[in-house]
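To: structure subgroup
Subject: Chain for Friday's discussion

All,

I'm putting the inputs and outputs inline so they're searchable in the archive.
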Amino acid sequence: MELVAIVIAVALIEYAVFCFLVGKARGTYGISAPATTGDPVFERYYRVQQNSVEVLVIFIPGIVLFAQYVRPDIAAGVGVVFIIARALYFKGYISDPKARGLGFALSFLPALALVFGGLIGAAMDLV
């Protein structure tokens, strides 16, 4: 489970970096809090942050469930894919929102796989 804990911590640090970059973009593009609109590039940064927290809600419980009921080493490996994919998502979305698809797919699908895998593993332990 140590590898899973490290992967979760790195995913949360990545999210914290996204939060910091949103704050930096506020200054760069002159968007005072609490506003979340006003400059298209700032809005991209903000959407990356919001979309990332939405998928973290699926990813974190999913990786814990998968690690507990299936295999922690596989869960950690899938988690690394998730982290790299979120960075690709960030890069794609900031450059051109239409370029976010690969990063989205490579992070959302593994997050779902962790949840469903954990569910199946738990159900099999029950039976």
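Points worth raising on Friday:
The mean pLDDT is 97.
The longest helix spans residues 40-69.

D.
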